[in-house]
Amino acid sequence: MNLHPLLQQREREGRPIRVGLIGAGRYGTMYLAQARNIPGIHVVAIADINVARAQGAFALVDWPADAMAESIEEALANRTTTIVADAAALFDSDIDVIVEATGNPIVGVNHALRAIETKKHIIMVTVEADALAGPALARRAEAAGVVYSMAYGDQPALIMELVDWARTSGFDVVCAGKGAKYLSHYHEMNPDNVWDNWEFSKELTDSGQLNPYMHTSFRDGTKAAIEMAAVANAAGLVPSDDGLTFTPGNVEEIATICRPSAVGGVLANGGSVDVMSSVTRAGDWIPFNTQEGVFVVVKATNAYVSGCFTEYPWHPDPTGQYAALYRPYHYVGLELNVSIANAALRGIATGAPTGFHGDVVATAKKDLTAGEFLDGEGGFTVWGKLVSAETSVRNRLLPVALAHHVELTHDVAKGQSVSWDDVIIDESLATALELRRETEALIDVEALAL
Looking at the structure, do residues 166 and 314 belong to the same domain, yes or no? Predict the structure, then answer.
């Protein structure tokens, strides 16, 4: 990709890319662990309302004490780094790239919009915000002349790299996806029983270091749906309205499983997204499973290409018409600088929404009653189901990112998706609602009614 020589040049010129990070959680800490070893990079500041957590992140990665500053002004002047409690300070400074890693979709939308308004590139680690309003944010960024990008190291950006490879090579993308552990009862999971569905030790789960709500969303299907919605919107792929299949299978079976149902696969349509389970429905781990990896399935353009599929280790389907390319790992924040460098040095994104094709809607985990309050991703009431954007807009379905502490006005049966008409929306979420409505406006509602 030739990014490293460009970074070295910026280092020689004394013009490092100035980075501001919002959120000192796992992702941000992983980036800090790499940042001082990368030429042409200056982490100016980290913003976190929990200053102690940010201090702990620096301690974890052995950040030198003499590399810390008391203010952003001092950090910029001396090429050191500071901690601030309020992210607003980052937008008012001479920072080139903002990394949004709070994990909060409402806050993430607000931060992205502020970065765009102040002409800063934005790397959106908070994929929940991207699934909620990414298409509108990407359009605003383009109009402002800045980059809005997925975060390399997370699976959506790595999937987009494979999609780009496939299309640049002349292939049509049949499916793009990832691996994850899934069992049929996961959609009913909640924070009270979440640790029964993970492999962590009791000592660790009792330590308070792990967030039960976050880990519920990782396993109940919500996180997978959010990531695949981001891929669908970036790649122009259309998900099934029945949601992700989570079909069990191994690496050699990707192309056989993730092909259209008309030819023996599980996809409702070609040009889609899906997630494969790394365990059988009985819970047994599958040898050579797809856990942690990402893939793209392509179709042969002619008989000669089909022959090539069988001659090289492409793991084709039985017909020889479909083949998969697979990346077996993702290193999360350790790989983030690929996005930062591409945005600042080349003005390009490592994946960004090009339209509104997939949406993640709040779906009842149990029978819900009018007067109850929804508690959002990873909670007790709803999980996030992936559907096509057209179906979401046509049926006025509620995005799971807006299902936090909202009151139901109607009963909702288990397995049914919640609509805007079923809840009282907090209109104080003005910015997020505005960007969401801009996103939904990309779908022609009148045309859907015909």
Answer: yes
Over the stretch 291-311, which tens digit does the pLDDT of each residue have? 999 999 999 999 999 999 999
| Helices 430-440 and 105-117, packing angle to 10 deg | 80
58 and 31 fall within a common domain: yes
C-alpha 408/C-alpha 424 separation (Å) is 7
Judgement on whether residues 363 and 292 belong to the same structural domain of the protein: no
Residue 352 belongs to some domain of the structure: no
Pick from 49, 56, 50, 88: nearest CA to 72: 88
SS3 251: helix
Alpha-carbon separation of residue 77 from 14, 41, 68, 241, 344 (angstroms): 12, 14, 12, 53, 20
What pLDDT does 313 receive?
79
What burial letters (b/e) apply to 373-384, b meaning 16+ CB within 10 Å? bbbbbbbbbbbb
Q: How many domains does the chain have?
A: 3
Q: Which residues of the chain have pLDDT under 50?
A: none
CATH of the domain at 391: 3.90.1210.10
Q: Which residues span the domain enclosing 41?
A: 3-153+333-346
pLDDT tens digits for 338-390? 999 999 999 999 999 999 999 999 999 999 999 999 999 999 999 999 999 99
pTM of the model: 0.96
